[in-house]
């Protein structure tokens, strides 16, 4: 994948140089990411380096951004991509599973990104 | 796997500071901010800077960081002020304003970037420790480092900038100057001072002051006619409104508008607005009025306009001259009334789409107070609850004020008008037109202050019209019903009785004629007896009317006796008395050249009929043969020989007075262009119809007795009242009928004191007690 991709998608680059695609609208939910994307900084591109996070954490971050977006915009939720990590609670709403092993990493990431 | 039973949590690897020391981090941050402020944010890596802040916060440097940031911004803004505003300070005016506006826009952008970079600090530190967020803190620094030192200069330049645009006199959409002003206002409104925003605290007052001064100077320097002045003012206000809209918020806009209205409208009200309004009102220019009225929605202004409108209308009405070329007073009056009614309609057309402010509360309350004592008749003038007054109600108020000032005239002349209208209904062709006219007139009647006087005069006129069959009875009935709707049946009770008398008389006459035909089919004339209820008709004393021993010609006498017998059979409790002088005779006579139907009063007819048997008669002989009272006889004879159009008797010698020995013969040479000739009666009219003084006397009597009743009613409730208060309450009680004068009141009190209904307090002569 290259930088020529549509601006609707941005890529988060983890410390291990892995790329994680996320829809721009989904990424905007994080005020940190929003500041980057809206600002005029050297790294205000579609490829954002996140050297403080490992790939597996970023994976989870992206997943959560998608999940949160769907949760808040249920009208767009028609395109369910059958994520394995989703349960459905008694309200018919999906739950988000957090792998125990990553919980502390995710806590820090959530704080950093303000999501 | 041993660990499979346990929950395994990865411990994030200990994040070290990516820099060696706090100072080093700060230096890095400062470089980043420098780049931001010099518009080189593209050189700054967001992620790195953000992470720097993140780490500093995580290592508990946040308070220190916040302090450093603040110091940095202070330094930065001070420097900006020096380099971008103070430098080249000779460049004043728009240069300064534009620079400041640009600086403001830049600062906004830069502060936002700084906030983004220090987002983590902003998020975690500011709220929790109740310190202003990064942007707010930046604005505070901006205010204290840039705006406050420049406060006076900014105010001065801003105000003169506005003045500059005003003096150019036109606005263009993309004017960079108005753009700068808008930016600056939004800046000043963003920056908060101690109590309000910067604009309100420091600049607004000068701006208002200067705006007032500017327009005041402008309008007084050009000396214009009202119309041109008004156009100018309209233009200026439109311009100013458009200008203000470009850069001010609605609040400040309204304040400026008010200030300028003060200058442009109030200072010129008497010289400009008032004369124009008068012009609009006298020319019935709807357009001009609408413009004047639409100038501003200020309540005070509209109230004042309303007063001027009322004054103008009253003045206009007062200026309606009586037409002196007409000889008869009734015609003069009718013409006058027609013009008044006409004006009313025109003004109603003119004003109907406007809504007027009603008087301020306290006065409205007073009015309401007086209405409580009053009956409901005053309701028409009271403003409705919304504080607005309709045009009709305004006009009614105005006209009733006018009538108040021209009492006697208005009452009489409106009556004359009604009379002349109704007389035209005799030939049935104009009925619908007359109805319309009378309806219009009826609207004004309720505005008259002395409605009792109106009724009295109207009654006299009605009786004349009815007895002489000068109008259509149907229309009369319609009109009386209408008046009764306007004034209440109290006023029209007697009028209705009169009309009923006429129609009952018609019925009786018909059945009498039928019975006569059976008995004496050869009856040679039409006989139309009219039976009137004494008390309802305006004849004071029946003995003035009835002359018992008149000798009637044979046929008439027969009819009289026949009718008396018929009537007594029908209503045997009632007695009939004949008022011959209210009736009339129609006699067909062949003169030498032409045949004529002569219509004349009964007495004249009796005299004329004598000549069927006699060729020549002396005054004395006529008196003996008829028993007509002497004065009446002389009057009738004079009419028969003197009146220019209906001289049917000749007299010798042909002098202008009647002597007992004068001899009369039929004027056989008489001729006239029409077959039907009305024999005019010369002096005065039918007796029993009162002269003016008579009317006034009766009015006085009625008023005193109405006042008596009112005083007694008032005192019965209050028991004891002081003179002034008693007068007020009594006046309020009789207001629906007439306006109480002190003279009438005094007369009434004198009567009541004498009759001991009321007692004067022995100690205080101004105090009255009710005696049960």
UniProtKB/TrEMBL annotation, chain A:
Residues 10-67 form the SKP1 component POZ domain. Residues 72-92 are annotated as: Disordered. One of its GO terms (biological process) is ubiquitin-dependent protein catabolic process. Residues 83-92 have a biased composition (Acidic residues). It is found in: Nucleus. Its main location: nucleus. It comes from the Eukaryota. GO terms for cellular component: nucleus. SUPFAM superfamilies: POZ domain. The keyword Nucleus applies. The keyword Transmembrane helix does not apply. Keywords: Nucleus. Belongs to the SKP1 family. PANTHER family: ELONGIN-C. This is Elongin-C. It comes from Maudiozyma humilis (Sour dough yeast).
TrEMBL record, chain B:
Residues 409-641 form the Cullin family profile domain. SUPFAM superfamilies: Cullin homology domain (SSF75632), Cullin repeat-like (SSF74788), Winged helix' DNA-binding domain (SSF46785). InterPro entries: Cullin (IPR045093), Cullin-like_AB (IPR059120), Cullin_homology (IPR016158), Cullin_homology_sf (IPR036317), Cullin_N (IPR001373), Cullin_neddylation_domain (IPR019559), Cullin_repeat-like_dom_sf (IPR016159), WH-like_DNA-bd_sf (IPR036388). Residues 372-382 have a biased composition (Acidic residues). GO terms for biological process: ubiquitin-dependent protein catabolic process. One of its GO terms (molecular function) is ubiquitin protein ligase binding. Residues 361-390 are annotated as: Disordered. PROSITE patterns: CULLIN_2. Gene3D superfamilies: Cullin Repeats, Cullin, Chain C, Domain 2, Winged helix-like DNA-binding domain superfamily/Winged helix DNA-binding domain. Residues 361-371 have a biased composition (Polar residues). Belongs to the cullin family. This is Cullin. It comes from Maudiozyma humilis.
């Amino acid at each position: 994948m290259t930088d020529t991709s549509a601006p609707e998608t941005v890529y988060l680059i983890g410390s291990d140089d892995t790329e994680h695609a996320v829809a721009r609208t989904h990424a905007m939910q994080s005020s940190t990411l929003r500041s980057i994307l809206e600002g005029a900084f050297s790294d205000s591109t579609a490829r954002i380096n996140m050297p403080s996070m490992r790939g597996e954490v970023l994976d989870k971050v992206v997943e959560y951004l998608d999940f949160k977006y769907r949760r808040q915009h249920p009208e767009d939720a028609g395109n369910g991509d059958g994520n394995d990590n989703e349960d459905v609670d008694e309200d018919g709403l999906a739950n988000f599973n957090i792998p125990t092993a990553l919980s502390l990493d995710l806590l820090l990431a959530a704080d950093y990104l303000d999501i | 796997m041993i660990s499979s039973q346990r929950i395994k949590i990865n411990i994030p690897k200990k994040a070290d500071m990516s820099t060696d020391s706090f100072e080093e981090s700060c230096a890095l941050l400062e470089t980043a901010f420098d780049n931001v402020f010099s518009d080189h944010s593209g050189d700054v890596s967001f992620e790195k800077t953000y992470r720097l802040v993140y780490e500093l916060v995580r290592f508990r440097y946040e308070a220190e960081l916040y302090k450093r940031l603040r110091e940095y911004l202070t330094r930065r803004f001070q420097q900006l002020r020096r380099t971008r505003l103070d430098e080249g300070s000779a460049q004043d005016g728009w240069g300064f304003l534009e620079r400041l506006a640009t600086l403001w826009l830049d600062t906004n952008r830069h502060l936002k970037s700084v906030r983004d970079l220090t987002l983590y600090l902003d998020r975690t530190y500011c709220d929790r420790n109740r310190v202003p967020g990064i942007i707010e803190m930046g604005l505070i620094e901006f205010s204290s480092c840039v705006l406050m030192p420049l406060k006076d200069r900014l105010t001065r330049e801003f105000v003169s900038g506005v003045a500059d645009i005003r003096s150019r006199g036109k606005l263009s959409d993309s004017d960079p100057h108005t753009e700068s002003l808008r930016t600056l206002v939004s800046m000043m409104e963003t920056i908060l001072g101690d109590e309000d925003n910067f604009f309100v605290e420091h600049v607004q007052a000068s701006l208002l002051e200067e705006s007032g001064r500017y327009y005041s100077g402008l309008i007084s320097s050009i000396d214009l006619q009202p119309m041109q002045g008004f156009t100018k003012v309209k233009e200026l206000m439109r311009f100013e409104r458009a200008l203000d809209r470009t850069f001010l918020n609605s609040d400040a806009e309204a304040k400026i508008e008010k200030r300028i209205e003060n200058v442009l409208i109030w200072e010129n009200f008497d010289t400009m607005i008032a004369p124009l309004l008068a012009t609009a009102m006298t020319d019935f220019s709807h357009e001009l009025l609408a413009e004047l009225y639409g100038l501003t929605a200020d309540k005070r202004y509209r109230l004042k306009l309303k007063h001027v409108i009322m004054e103008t209308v009253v003045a206009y009405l007062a200026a309606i001259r009586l037409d002196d070329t007409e000889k008869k007073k009734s015609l003069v009056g009718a013409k006058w009334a027609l013009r008044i009614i006409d004006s009313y309609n025109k003004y109603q057309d003119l004003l109907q789409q406007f809504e007027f402010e009603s008087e301020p509360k306290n006065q409205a309350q007073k009015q309401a107070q007086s209405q409580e004592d009053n009956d409901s008749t005053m309701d028409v003038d009271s403003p409705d609850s919304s504080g607005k007054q309709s045009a009709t109600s305004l006009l009614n108020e105005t006209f009733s004020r006018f009538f108040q000032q021209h009492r006697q005239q208005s009452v009489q002349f409106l009556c004359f008008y009604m009379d002349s209208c109704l007389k035209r209904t005799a030939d049935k062709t104009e009925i619908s037109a007359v109805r319309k006219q009378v309806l219009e007139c009826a609207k004004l009647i309720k505005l008259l202050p002395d409605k009792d006087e109106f009724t009295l005069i109207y009654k006299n006129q009605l009786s004349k019209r009815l007895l002489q069959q000068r109008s259509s009875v149907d229309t009369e009935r319609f009109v009386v019903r209408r008046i009764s709707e306007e004034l209440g049946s109290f006023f029209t009770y007697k009028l209705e009785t009169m009309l009923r008398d006429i129609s009952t008389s018609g019925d009786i006459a018909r059945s009498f004629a039928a019975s006569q035909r059976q008995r004496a089919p050869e009856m040679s004339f039409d006989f139309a007896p009219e039976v009137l209820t004494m008390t309802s008709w305006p004849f004071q004393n029946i003995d003035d009317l009835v002359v018992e021993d008149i000798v009637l010609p044979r046929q008439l006498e027969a009819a009289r006796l026949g009718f008396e017998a018929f009537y007594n059979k029908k209503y045997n409790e009632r007695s009939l008395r004949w008022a011959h002088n209210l009736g009339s005779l129609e006699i067909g006579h062949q003169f030498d050249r032409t045949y004529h139907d002569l219509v004349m009063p009964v007495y004249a007819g009796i005299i004329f009929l004598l000549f069927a048997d006699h060729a020549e008669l002396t005054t004395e002989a006529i008196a003996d043969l008829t028993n007509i009272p002497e004065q009446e006889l002389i009057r009738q004879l004079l009419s028969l020989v003197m009146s220019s159009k209906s001289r049917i008797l000749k007299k010798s010698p042909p002098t202008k007075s009647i002597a007992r020995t004068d001899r009369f013969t039929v004027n056989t040479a008489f001729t006239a262009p029409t077959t039907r000739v009305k024999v005019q009666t010369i002096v005065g009219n039918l007796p029993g119809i009162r002269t003016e003084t008579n009317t006034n006397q009766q009015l006085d009597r009625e008023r005193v007795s109405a006042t008596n009743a009112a005083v007694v009613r008032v005192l019965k409730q209050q028991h004891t009242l002081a003179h002034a208060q008693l007068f007020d309450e009594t006046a309020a009680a009789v207001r629906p009928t007439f306006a109480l004068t002190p003279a009438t009141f005094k007369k009434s009190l004198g009567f009541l004191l004498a009759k001991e209904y009321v007692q004067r307090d022995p100690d205080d002569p101004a105090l009255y007690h009710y005696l049960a």
